[in-house]
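Tip: read the tokens left to right.
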């Protein structure tokens, strides 16, 4: 996601498998970040080329950094574009989750936020603004950053204003992890871990016959220090944080998470939100919702959903780093002293 510092360090799993399963590791770059896939296969099949090809196709549809991608063609169009084959199915699935999260959480998740992301300089890696943008400019961008201006009409992806721009970077890595996992499962592979830009989907056990273990970094710029490790088995995990991607406005750091209600970077005490649920696409979108809402709203969101667990890192009243762990997360997590 992207969009984020990779908040996870995949912990080494080099132990020899005592069964007939062969362990494969596939690594590469995608969506402006990296990916790592580990899977165990009784048939000994090397699926690295197929997995990488899927990510190339996915990037060609959803990347806002590729001017030849499908989503870039939509953003450059006046009224929209036609979708064909797999493109249509992928957009349908992405919008199904986006619609749900957008509606339930009062617009805190908004894939039509592209004009605001561009304005704040997160596409061109702009590092600073001399002053706060004027409110009238923000208001004009908010008017064209409404999710209801985008819709699917049969095989057409339609916009109601030429200035509308989609940005799905807050959900695409999680979706890609789900797609790759589904592909492996069609091949009869049910022991794997997929990490794309820090978003993770894990199924079954690793070669040590334990859950897959990942480490969470301290939410500070360029920090390699782990604050905890989490063990996953048949779960997905996503993290959102503002500590490594930001813009400096009038001398103040402001994170990359845009609040769709204000049109400005979200400013609150929450430093990072790590969510665990069954599917990675849901976890990815909900992690963004948490960052927009802040610590208290994030905690309420996690406790309200039975299938969701969370680990929040925030700044307490004294300005010190503090953590909150949901009840169901306690059995999965080990904090590093």
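Filled-in amino acids:
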């Amino acid at each position: 996601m992207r969009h984020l510092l990779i908040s996870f360090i995949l912990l080494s799993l080099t132990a020899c498998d005592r069964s007939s399963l062969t362990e494969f590791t596939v690594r590469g770059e995608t969506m402006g970040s990296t990916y790592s896939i580990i899977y165990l296969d009784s048939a000994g099949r090397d699926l690295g080329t197929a997995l990488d090809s899927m990510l190339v196709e996915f990037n060609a549809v959803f990347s806002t950094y590729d001017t030849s991608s499908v989503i870039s063609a939509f953003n450059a169009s006046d009224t929209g574009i036609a979708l064909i084959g797999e493109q249509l199915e992928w957009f349908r699935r992405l919008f199904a989750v986006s619609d749900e999260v957008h509606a339930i959480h009062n617009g805190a998740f908004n894939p039509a936020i592209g004009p605001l992301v561009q304005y704040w300089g997160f596409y061109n890696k702009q590092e600073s603004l001399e002053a706060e943008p004027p409110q009238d400019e923000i208001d004009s961008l908010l008017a064209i950053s409404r999710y209801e201006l985008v819709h699917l009409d049969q095989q057409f992806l339609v916009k109601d204003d030429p200035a509308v721009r989609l940005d799905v970077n807050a959900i695409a890595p999680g979706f890609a992890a789900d797609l790759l996992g589904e592909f492996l499962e069609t091949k009869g592979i049910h022991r794997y871990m997929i990490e794309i830009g820090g978003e993770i989907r894990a199924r079954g056990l690793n070669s040590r016959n334990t859950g897959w273990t990942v480490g969470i970094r301290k939410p500070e710029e360029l920090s390699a220090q782990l604050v905890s490790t989490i063990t996953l088995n048949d779960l997905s995990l996503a993290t959102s944080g503002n500590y490594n991607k930001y813009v400096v406005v009038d001398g103040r750091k402001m994170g990359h998470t845009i609040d769709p209600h204000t049109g400005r970077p979200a400013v609150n005490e929450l430093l990072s939100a790590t969510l665990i649920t069954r599917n990675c696409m849901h976890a990815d979108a909900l992690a963004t919702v948490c960052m927009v809402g802040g610590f208290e709203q994030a905690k309420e969101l996690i406790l309200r959903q039975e299938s969701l667990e969370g680990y929040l890192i925030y700044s307490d009243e004294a300005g010190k780093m503090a953590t909150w762990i949901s009840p169901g997360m306690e059995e999965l997590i080990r904090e590093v002293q």
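Residues 98 and 111 are 7 Å apart (CA to CA). Residues 8-335 form a domain with the T-fold fold (CATH 3.10.520.10).
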